[in-house]
Amino acid sequence: MPSALTLAVVFALAGAMASGCATVTTGPRQTLRVTTQPPGASCKITREATQLGVVDPTPGTVDIEKGSTGIWIACGKAGYLPASAEAAAQFQGMTFGNVLLGGLVGLAVDAASGAMFFYPDSVHVVLVPARFDSAQERDRFFEGLSSRITQRAAGAIERLSQSCSTEKCRQELRAIERTRDEQLADLERQKAGALIGAAEPKHSVALPAAASAQADPLAAAQQHLSAQGCQGVLQPLGNQEGQELFHARCDGYELSLRCTAQTCEEMFRLPAR
Fold this sequence. Notes:
The protein is an alpha+beta fold. It has helices spanning 11-18, 97-101, 103-113, 135-163, 167-193, 217-227; strands spanning 29-37, 42-47, 50-55, 60-65, 71-76, 83-87, 90-91, 117-118, 122-126, 203-204, 233-240, 243-250, 253-259, 264-271. The longest helix is centred in the middle third of the chain and has 29 residues, at 135-163.
């Protein structure tokens, strides 16, 4: 489920569908190309809390191990809010040939190695500026992203509609529409929370003593930053997989946090622009 940080542009999904699901590779590993807007970001690729690789800086490629579950591409760049994209594992139908050529053992080996699944060849992640000089600049930025997402979704829907009419294809069409709607809703939430000019987020990093007893992600983030000696500002960014995300600007550096009610994990720590 996309979060307020997620701007995984739908052309990653559209590209896989445009080929009619004919892109098939063999072996337990594949190459993933990661690009960002703007370029020059640092991106970590993880699957179920295990780091698969790093692209630093973007654009770049990384050799990753295949698997049956999705991967997260989390990116950070000084002066921008951290962003992430999800790439789902797609089934590689030709692996069924192993049932004929190698028996059930062959299929089991492929399943265990991840070779029967693959990810898109490339993923593009958009990072939102941490601050805009004016409301007009903010509006132009988000209008451009909204138009891009809408156009790419429309193209993917048109190509799939022309080449496929099975129930599976109809499910994929609905998935594209859901992804488009979720991303557009995420954009509206990010636009509403965007900083303009000298405006600061409502939450300061300084943690009042009375707040230390609170069991919530904001208090955990404040506690984490206070322990680091950070005296900047803390900006809530939304929820990702049941955890709250925050962006903090400290003296000389920026960092992003993913927090539960008790603890926080640093996703990125970058020099301030």
